[in-house]
Amino acid sequence: xxxxxxxxxxxxxxxxxxxxxxxxxxxxxxxxxxxxxxxxxxxxxxxxxxxxxxxxxxxxxxxxxxxxxxxxxxxxxxxxxxxxxxxxxxxxxxxxxxxxxxxxxxxxxxxxxxxxxxxxxxxxxxxxxxxxxxxxxxxxxxxxxxxxxxxxxxxxxxxxxxxxxxxxxxxxxxxxxxxxxxxxxxxxxxxxxxxxxxxxxxxxxxxxxxxxxxxxxxxxx
Length: 221
What we know:
alpha/beta, Rossmann fold, two-stranded antiparallel sheet, 14% strand, globular
């Protein structure tokens, strides 16, 4: 089936965050006075669940302090991003522009809140690149639930869910695509997970980078 829509993850897939997610988390747990083994265990869980909704991750880690933790994380992430800067994964914009020129619709999905997502997009200068941008707050649930992918499919008015491709760097991205019933899940090696973990969680294939995406047979004009 022809691919009509590609749902791209952000951090680690199209956006090189220079380790800012973990840096923001470390600042957050420091602010919450989480130290020692508790801090190490919390960081390990964040790495394990990379790509999932941050508020859902913090709900597991901090229970009734989840909202406080999430607000602190979002604040620290945007501050660090402004300090250090963010950049696209090399070739990401060019790949997206090529796919759009072939008539493929594109969307961005992320575990960040809408405000943090938009701050990132502004820093990248991508406001004009992708109009369909979805966070868990927009869709209901974050990854690995299928909600964000399904909302993108509905918004793009695709002919079938099987005409959607999901592209991401984490197991959560692949799981969300599979649960949504998309036609193809593509992992990339520019972020968190390696090829084995991506394949074990539903990737049909794994690429070095999104820059290689326009070369796929299913996407060649």
